[in-house]
Amino acid sequence: MLETSQLAKLFGTLSRYANDGDAQFLKIKESVAKILEGRLQSLTVSDMLHWSLPLAAEEIKNTQIWDRFKHLMLSNPDSLSF
Predict the structure, then answer these.
(1) What's the rounded Cα separation, in Å, for the pair 29 and 18?
(2) What span, in angstroms and rounded, lies between the C-alpha atoms of 34 and 45?
(3) Which residues of 9-42 are buried (b: 16+ CB within 10 A; e: fewer)?
(4) What residues contact 68, with CB distance under 8 A and at least 6 apart?
(5) Beta carbons within 10 angstroms of residue 48's beta carbon
(6) Rounded distance, CA 48 to CA 52, Å?
(7) How far is CA 72 from the centre of its chain?
(8) What beta strand segments (E) does 13-77 contain?
């Protein structure tokens, strides 16, 4: 099984080369959202950093995932300081 960061890298790469409306890529997008939903409670700040750009770029609007990312940001302000 791929680690969350590896899956994010693979998804981000595939999304750059998928054609708009590609049925296979649409299935991949749905699968990725379901995988992340299943891992919601174990997602970390690091996972959020890996996933936020690819998910936003592909307009994945799964509110559970984005709510988890929002929760991670609010509950880990020290992890996000620069």
Answers:
(1) 11
(2) 19
(3) eebbebbeeeeeeeeebeebbeebbeebeeeeee
(4) 40, 43, 48
(5) 23
(6) 6
(7) 13
(8) none
pTM for the structure as a whole = 0.81
Q: pLDDT at residue 82 above 70?
A: no
For 17-55, how does the pLDDT look when each residue is reduced to its tens digit (9 = 90+)? 887 778 888 898 899 999 999 999 999 999 999 999 999
Neighbours of 68 (CB within 10 A): 20
Residue 56 structural domain: 4-80
Question: Hunting for tokens 């296979």 — which residue is that?
Answer: 24
Number of Cβ within a 10 Å radius of residue 62: 17
End-to-end CA distance of the chain: 32
Q: How many domains does the chain have?
A: 1
